[in-house]
Amino acid sequence: MATQSPPTRRGPLTGNRIRERRLLAGLKQAELADRVGISASYLNLIEHNRRRIGGKLLNDLARALDVEPAALSEGADAAVRLSLEAAVQSLPDPGVTRVGAAPELDQIDELSARYPGWTALITAQDRRITALEATIEGLRDRLAHDPALADAMHEVLSSVAAIRTTADILVREADIDPAWRGRFHRNMHEEAERLSARATGLLDTFEVPGGSDAVIRPVERVEAMFDAAGHHFPEIEDGGRAAIPDVLDRAPELVDEDCRALAEDWLGSYARDADVLPMGPFLAEAQDAGFDPARISAHSSEDFARVLRRMATLPASLDRPNFGLAIVDATGAVLFRRRNAGFSLPRYGAGCPRWPVYRALSRVGQPDEVEVILSGHARFKTWSIAHPVAQLGFGAAPLVQATMLIRNLAPDAPDGAAAPLEVGPDCPTCRTSPHIPRQ
């Protein structure tokens, strides 16, 4: 498939960038022209893109404007471009904004050159929106699946029910023996004390030291950082592991050392994958294979789990399928995920026991390809494999993880050879839905 790369506009826009930088510096044309030893009329032609420049003159202009020559001759850097493209992809309908006009992807260079401050604001706001969405998703997931929170709520409701029952007896029974009435009052007082302690403990679950931001755990913040980058880091693709500190320094989601350490660990895994499967050759192979990891693996001896992880890091600017990713440990707990529209990947508690990734845990080293159908209509193709990640000692079973790549399928996509596996978003759905056949 062809990539959707914006047209190159770097040459024609050099003059625009020189003019914008000159205005930001508060210089008149004559002043800048005098500094670089040319006439004001010639600089005027350059700024209106009627003269191409390069070499010494470009360097002189850059020095006079106190910028790097690349800032004048090139367009938006890769990080800015990817951030703006990710902002467009995050729209429910990337083709239409609230004002009814599609974002002009081919004008990113011009936007960055003319309005660098506004460009920075747009990218910063998009990262903030992504982080807030991750916060909301994490809290929703926690409310639905966190067993500790469920236990705390159960205790609170139990105390409320006990107090209500006792109060009801005291109100309805006017002739209670004074000794029994005293016992009821004592019981109600004790339950009220327990309710107060349990409610305070429940509040502490959310209001922990560090403010409201501390509610979100490090793993959720790291996922928010990956989501904001579209799970693709050009700096690491180019510079390898040495680029990780720069990525960490520019991540506002990493609020403490725990977040930073976890992010460094996952970025280290990303760098190792990028070193073994460089993006350029891998992308070409993925396009030739129709973005099918099974076909890629058939022509490669590479670790299948690594292929699945790399599929989830393809740049958002490509005309490619929508991929999600889940990495789980041997207990089924989700260690890392790339959320996929329509496919529930709960952070707290286990997912649907019929997920192919759990089946892979019982067949270590055997890749699996399964089409699944969710909620009766949404269709997905999944690829899974379980693989050892550490040897705990001689004679001991290895530590195992499983990886599952998820790809959205269009409703009108042709059916596979086998009937799709019906799955639910969580365990209760699978247990209680009568239309799901038992195996």
Give a concise summary:
It contains 19 helices and 6 strands. It has 439 residues and is α+β, with helices and mostly antiparallel strands.
Task: Describe the model.
The protein has 439 residues and is α+β, with helices and mostly antiparallel strands. The chain is 52% helix and 10% strand. It has 19 helices and six strands. Strands 2-1-5-4-3-6 form a six-stranded mixed beta sheet. Strand 3 and strand 4 form a beta hairpin.
- The number of distinct helices, counting runs of at least 4 residues, comes to 19
- Output the radius of gyration: 29 Å
Morphology? extended
**Main sheet characteristics:** 6 strands, mixed
Number of strands: 6
Helix coverage percent:
40-55%
Q: Estimate what percentage of residues fall within beta strands.
A: 5-15%
Roughly what is the average pLDDT, rounded to an integer?
Answer: 77
Give the helix/strand class. Answer: alpha+beta
Low-confidence runs:
1-12, 208-214, 426-439
Strand order within the widest sheet? Answer: 2-1-5-4-3-6
Distance between the termini: 39 Å
Order of helices and strands: HHHHHHHHHHHHHHHHHEEHEEEEH
